[in-house]
Amino acid sequence: MRGLRIAVPKGTIFEEALRALEAAGLPVRMLRGNGRRLFHRAGGFEFVVSRPSDVPVFVEHGAADVGIVGKDVLEEQEPNVMELADLGSGACRMVLAAPREGAERVRRAIAHAEVVRVATKFPRTARRYFEEMGRQAEIIELHGSVELAPLVGLSECIVDLTATGTTLQENDLEVLDEISRSTARLIANRGSYRLRHAEISNLLTAMEGRIVGG
Q1: Which residues pair with 116 in a beta bridge?
Q2: 6 near 25, Cβ under 8 Å?
Q3: 16, containing H or E segment
Q4: Interacting residues of 205 by C-beta distance below 8 A, sequence separation 6+
Q5: Which of 1, 89, 152, 186 could pair with 85 as two cysteines, CB 3.0-4.6 Å apart?
Q6: Is the whole-model pTM more than 0.70?
Q7: What is the mean pLDDT of each run of 10 residues along the chain (214 residues)?
Q8: What domains can you pick out in the chain, each with its CATH number?
């Protein structure tokens, strides 16, 4: 049987994910040394390095046994995986934001059940947020700098992820509401959790004992 395969996200939580795995005793040093290599074997483990949005896909379909991914991605994709632990790292917020000059108008439009145009990289999350309020919104999906959308008239507001709020401030955007909070989570493939329960349980126990900030 191959080694336990772990999907690790590139980007903002990459280093924090490696620290959590390293603290749990896994040999992840080589993942830092070669940014172009995406598949590694070491110490009886296998590591897949992918885009954060792809981690749940690898895990759900069994191409990885476990993975580390932000709660924001799980809420957006709603994959059929097991969420095993909150690792406490990579903290950020999903927010509704609008240009400072137009913030009050957007608030009134939402309060009066008017349709507002919302740009976002998280269309399901945005749509669910407005539906839960009993409001309607025209969702415009973007894949790049969402903050630009209201500045050029593409949308009236945005739903986006923020860690420090600096990018919002630099683009004169004001937070109107906090939709949710996100941290890194350890997830598992349902089949792998049954078939490799002992291995995954040992990993979970080791990581829970060394949660970032714990």
Answers
A1: 137
A2: no
A3: helix 14-23
A4: none
A5: 186
A6: yes
A7: 93 93 93 83 95 97 98 97 95 97 96 96 98 96 95 97 94 97 97 97 87 46
A8: 4-91+183-208 (3.40.190.10), 92-181 (3.40.190.10)
